[in-house]
TrEMBL record:
Pfam families tied to this protein: GDPD
One Gene Ontology biological process: lipid metabolic process
Organism of origin: Methyloglobulus morosus KoM1
PROSITE patterns in the record: GP_PDE (PS51704)
Protein name: Glycerophosphoryl diester phosphodiesterase
GP-PDE domain boundaries: 9-299
One example GO MF annotation: phosphoric diester hydrolase activity
Length: 307
């Protein structure tokens, strides 16, 4: 495989390589390394006792057995559980249950997962491990320690909570400082007020404006926030029109404007091989994907001029 750095594009594993391991777990982040990623993206929240844990959803229902371990609770929000309680949960079996479904019944991001990819990237022993009950929700400290061990960059997404998020930024920055990974970390969030808090407290750590789609006057906005990167969602009309239609051309012009101003552009969540190639041609600096193997193949094809 052609090294990603050879064309200066980051292969970024979304929630770890979540097509091939339970998302936002240490095994998913290790899988990202095995698949040649430069960076992995993860989501962080505060547990009830203030410990930063790695988990995407507001509640625990989709990716854990919280209802079984703690029956009768009125809510299953991450913020309602202490770290000790969260550490009792099984965060892996749900993924194996998904693989047993037909493609049409799976979660959308797993519906394009082929039998060949499962055979190549999810071994029998891994499946047994994921279903064992031993896969846990990691803390941010545990995850950063693994990233340091694997020499991987990390995109930390700060998740907002409907009840607020006092202390999240401070706790995350403390964990980054403790693990001495400031130069390997990119912090992003849809809640741009959180990014402002990060920048008010440190100029050393890179931040990325996270957005579903193009925003107005992106360059001026990024400069106002003193951001380093722009993490933009994939072009929504790509499946129907590619980048050939008017909206697609506007999307590419938008990316070009941001790149020409000196900011990095990382596109999420890109799982379509042809879209990956088109985005590489557009000059993006990173592709955030559930399928890092496909990103690696796209980068190789693009570098060799065979796409």
């Amino acid at each position: 495989m052609v090294p990603t750095a050879s064309i200066n594009v980051l292969n970024i594993a979304h929630r770890g390589a979540r097509a091939y391991a339970p998302e936002n777990t240490l095994v998913a982040f290790a899988k990202a390394k095995a698949l040649g990623c430069d960076m992995f993206e993860m989501d962080v929240r505060l547990a009830k006792d203030g410990i930063v844990v790695v988990y995407h959803d507001d509640d625990l229902v989709r990716c854990t057995d919280a209802k079984t371990k703690f029956p009768g609770r009125s809510r299953y929000d991450v913020a309602d559980f202490t770290h000790s309680e969260l550490s009792r949960l099984d965060a892996g079996s749900w993924y194996i249950a998904q693989l047993k479904l037909s493609r049409e019944e799976r979660l959308p991001f797993l519906q394009t997962l082929s039998d060949g990819e499962i055979a190549d990237f999810v071994s029998v022993s891994e499946r047994e491990h994921y279903a064992s009950g031993n896969i846990k929700i990691p803390t941010l400290t545990e995850t950063l320690s693994l990233a340091k061990e694997l020499n991987l960059k990390v995109n930390i997404e700060l998740k907002s909570h409907p009840d607020g998020h006092p202390g999240l930024v401070e706790a995350v920055l403390k964990d980054v400082q403790t693990t001495q990974l400031a130069d390997q970390v990119l912090i992003s969030s849809f809640d741009h007020a959180l990014l402002q808090q990060v920048r008010q407290q440190t100029s050393r750590i890179a931040i990325a404006v996270l957005t579903e789609g193009p925003i107005k006057a992106p360059v001026a906005y990024l400069r106002t926030l003193k951001a380093n990167a722009y993490n933009i969602g994939c072009h929504k009309d790509y499946k129907r029109h590619g980048f050939g239609g008017l909206s697609g051309k506007r999307y590419l012009t938008h990316i070009d404007e941001v790149r020409n101003a000196g900011f990095d552009v990382n596109v999420w969540t890109c799982n379509d091989p042809q879209e990956m190639v088109d985005l590489l041609a557009a000059g993006v600096t990173g592709l955030i994907s559930d399928y890092p193997n496909r990103v690696g193949d796209a980068i190789k094809s693009f570098a060799q001029g065979t796409c």
